[in-house]
Amino acid sequence: MRTYVISIKPMSGFGTPIKGDTLFGHICWQAAYDSKLFSKSIDELLSGYATDPFVVTSSAYPKINDNEYALKRPDTPLDLLFDLSGMDKAVIIKRRKELKGKRWMLVRLDNRLNSLKSPGIYFNDEELFEKLSDEKTIGFQRQMRKKGIKSYTVEFSQPHNTINRLTGTTGEGRFAPYAVDQVVYMPDAELAIFVGLREDISIEQVVEALKRIGDTGFGRDASTGLGRFTVEGFEKMDLMQLGAEDPNACYTLSPSVPAEELISKAFFSPFTRFGRHGDMLAKAGNPFKNPVIMVDEGAVLMPKDKGIFNRPYIGRAVSALSKAEPRAVTQGFSLYIPLRVEMGNE
Prior knowledge:
There is one protein chain. By secondary structure, the protein is α+β, with helices and mostly antiparallel strands. It has one domain. It has 6 helices and 18 strands. Strand 2 and strand 3 (68-72) form a beta hairpin. Helix 1 crosses helix 6.
């Protein structure tokens, strides 16, 4: 499997977070619409998915520049990320809130992530915004200060009205005003999506699928203008070169379902995907899929066998989750960056 990074630029707010499993579903719909896109039907693409996935997509992460990316801070105890040795218990408790706020981890292409305790790699929202602003022009920085923008993303509630054509106004029930939540990125923000491709799938095919998704909208309320983005470019990237040379753990880049028999120790935040079908199946008799309990992106999974590092993804496929479409699958795989976790007994 070959791995790439694709850069996208948000052109609107997003009603749905860009997580890898959701993005995979959108790509599958594009393949279902147009069998020429991947030169195979969707049934052919998914026929061997459990053992040889045709594509594995990551969640979207802030791209700082062509050499730096901000990923989610690993979901491990703080003492595995920060050097707390020699501190009094009272000092540790006092700093815990500050350290928990550092929810971003900086990854550089020219500097391997050999240790999770490397100094200066964790940032809070404001620090990330400042680092991103440093890459922009002086005029851009002045404009952000003038508007009081201090965060990479802002949660925004968009009010909507439904007009009763008999009265010419809003009203009660279905005509009551309502608000829709969305996430808006800072101006000129770019996001990075990491993808793994089977040998018979080209990066140009996946980029074309993403362009179509960006044109029509990703996720919830795409029909009202949310979820729009443009594809800015792509390049080949070996994720194994980003991490430790002697790894003992995998840092996951999207929600996944690990094969528990292959994992000796895991640090993660649970994530339940209450999935539902999109497009034509959204109006099926039962559009809802069975809930899937996953580990969220940023999990640190320590495998029993180092042979797992011979391929760039971890996890397994999830099937038999829909009564409306028995062939439906969910991406339980995740690309990963190899890590060296320094446990207390090592």
